Amino acid sequence: MGNHKSAIRRRNVDNILLAAEQVFAEKGYGGTSMGDIAELVGLPRSNLHYYFSTKDDLYRAVLLGLLEVWKQDALCFELYDDPRVVLSSYIRAKMNHSRTRAHGSKVWADEIIHGAPMLGATLDDSLYSWAKMKEAKIRQWVEDKRILAVEPSALLYMIWASTQHYADFSHQVGVLNDHRPLSDLQFERAVQTVTSVILRGIGLES
């Protein structure tokens, strides 16, 4: 019985967080109400407050959840050593989440653009050491002459910018694609193009 209740709670929380991503992305933090999110997720507002007492709590949970998604995307840095495998896997994971979690990417971008007012010092605690570990691996590849000499942070920023563009600027991408979202084939070509350009830029064949 306890496991069943726990599963229901987890499912409800997941549904709330996904709905909140969408509403926060579409209306911004200031324009979003708990009622908007409750309506989208199909729960009474009182039930929503049972899981998240305030909008601040829910917004912070969305942001921290997104950070965990980004970290999961980068597990390849720990699982593999070959720079071609690591970066190809990372770019594909980031691109896939730009397609499946576009709203979340927009919420994250908006928070960062405004100076992380909600995350504050939590961003330093959660992001700094994680990013430095990835930079250290890239730096080691450079020292071992496995890739061309590049600034590790710049390479990471380039990957983030290239992959998250498809989420943060999805409307623009659609407009330039004859007002249609990218098809599966178009998206796969985009993944391959981003991967190829980055790998060749650091001296690797794609």
UniProtKB/TrEMBL annotation:
PANTHER family according to UniProt: HTH-TYPE TRANSCRIPTIONAL REGULATOR YJDC, TRANSCRIPTIONAL REGULATORY PROTEIN
The protein, known as: TetR/AcrR family transcriptional regulator
Keyword vocabulary terms for this entry: DNA-binding, Transcription, Transcription regulation
Signal sequence coordinates: none
Residues of the HTH tetR-type domain: 10-70
Listed Gene3D superfamilies: Homeodomain-like, Tetracycline Repressor, domain 2
Coiled-coil positions: none
DNA-binding region, residues: 33-52
InterPro entries the record matches: Homeodomain-like_sf, HTH_TetR, Tet_transcr_reg_TetR-rel_C_sf, Tscrpt_reg_YcdC_C
Superkingdom per UniProt: Bacteria
